[in-house]
């Protein structure tokens, strides 16, 4: 399922879908690693305009000598 911006709702009110996903994620993730806050959804970020996306980071080291 693709997470698109229309699934998200601004403000403190959450849709039924958001509440269901938050509770499911809270039940299956490692609380020692991620804590118990409902706002964290593993490495997935939910942008209010662009929807879901993963953040990848990369470092390239080049030895020019």
From TrEMBL:
Species annotation: Perkinsus marinus (strain ATCC 50983 / TXsc)
Name it.
Cyanocobalamin reductase (cyanide-eliminating)
